[in-house]
Specification:
Elements (H helix, E strand, L loop, with lengths): L1 H109 L1
């Protein structure tokens, strides 16, 4: 029976050794998991930061484009108004000259 007792003792010591080794391995895996979680959280925070910066930049560009379009439209409307005023003035002068010419011809015929 001595061999059976020695074999049982060896099996028990081996089982204890394996259990300790599994505990060390599990602790190492837990440490790696925590490290990975930290890196993942850092990466997510960086993604959020870059996303905010991109959104802010996009809003600034959109605002700038809107302002430029508004200024261009204002200038176009102003130029159109000036053009219409100039056209009206030229037309009025032309019409007045035409009226004067017609009135001048009418006076000559009556004389």
């Amino acid at each position: 029976m001595e061999i059976v007792s020695i074999a049982a003792l060896v099996v028990a010591v081996l089982s204890a050794g394996i259990a300790v080794w599994q505990g060390i391995t599990s602790r190492s895996q837990l440490s790696l998991a925590r490290l990975t979680e930290g890196r993942t959280n850092d990466a997510l925070e960086e993604i959020r930061r870059v996303s905010r910066e991109t959104r802010d930049l996009t809003e600034n560009v959109k605002s700038s484009i809107d302002e430029r379009i508004s200024r261009m439209l204002d200038l176009k409307f102003e130029a159109d108004a000036q053009s219409q005023a100039t056209s009206k003035m030229v037309t009025d002068v032309f019409m007045q000259g035409l009226k004067d010419k017609i009135n001048g011809l009418g006076s000559e015929q009556n004389s």
